From TrEMBL:
Solcar repeats lie at residues 6-86, 91-188, 198-283. Belongs to the mitochondrial carrier (TC 2.A.29) family. It comes from the Eukaryota. Keywords: Membrane, Mitochondrion, Repeat, Transmembrane, Transmembrane helix, Transport. The chain crosses the membrane at residues 66-87, 93-114, 159-181, 201-221. The keyword Transmembrane helix applies. GO terms for cellular component: mitochondrial membrane. It is found in: Mitochondrion membrane. InterPro entries: MCP (IPR002067), MCP_dom_sf (IPR023395), MCP_transmembrane (IPR018108), Mitochondrial_Carrier (IPR050567). This is Uncharacterized protein.
Amino acid sequence: MALDFGFGFVAGVTGTIAGYPFDTVKVRLQTQTLNHRLYSGSLDCFIKIAKQESILGFYKGMSSPMFGVALINGIVFSIQNIAKGLFDNPDTYITLSITGVIAGASQSIICSPIELVKTRLQMQGIGQQRKLFALSTHLYKGPLDCLKKSYERRGLRHGVLRGLSMTFARDIPSFAAYFPAWQFFVTNFSPTGQEADMPMYMSLIGGGFTGIAAWTVSYPFDVIKSRYQAARDHVYKGVWDCTVKSFRTEGWRVFTRGFVPCTLRAVPTNAFTYPVYALLKRTFDTPIDEGESISENANQTKVMIITTVSPPSISSCD
């Protein structure tokens, strides 16, 4: 379990760095309204952030998910591997889906406050140059300050854990699709049907495919989560009120807003996350082969024989 956690942690850091700029664009598009439209689309958002906020504008609030997402990945892969041990056939699609549900639900309570902080920091200082942003008056000084102020204003349930229900609603179907999608790709595109025999470039493609599959089934929930977490406390009474008001004012398309940068983000993020985890697991967590096992058993037998023949040496050790 410790190794699974460590491998997932490293994979999470790698994936976060690769995909974070796309995540910033996704959140900006998800949270803008028709009455306050700053960006006409994904490309326009990319260009304006780069011009107005510099390259650092894409990485606002990354310190929170840098550690948090890495922690979450460690938890997800650890719990999923433990859950697979409860089934006789751990690699069937149904089993992978069930274990994905367990893993997704387990990490949501940690994921929700991390994403609350990330979302609010990403929305801070929109359109300001980085050098100006550093000197301007802004609400949050950093991730810990954001958590502190969220707790002071609304407490744990309505402040720090704001949007938890939508995090559950998003992550349960997302991870239910994530692990079966990876298994499907390996089965159909590996020369032998085994993960270890798949070329690295195919692993990267498979990671991107897996991420897109997971986001496709859960994306509308992510939109509501982002809008609810980013909004001022008095704007929405709850997630259902946020859903109804968003639909009434902007129609069904609001639930797909930002999907293009989300899928673009899914490619580099997941192209590195699961393949890096799988590579580390194959490299550092290889089981003892049959020859080593026989040799070890033989050595143990020799020790037992020596122990039986020469008890004086044992007594001297005592």
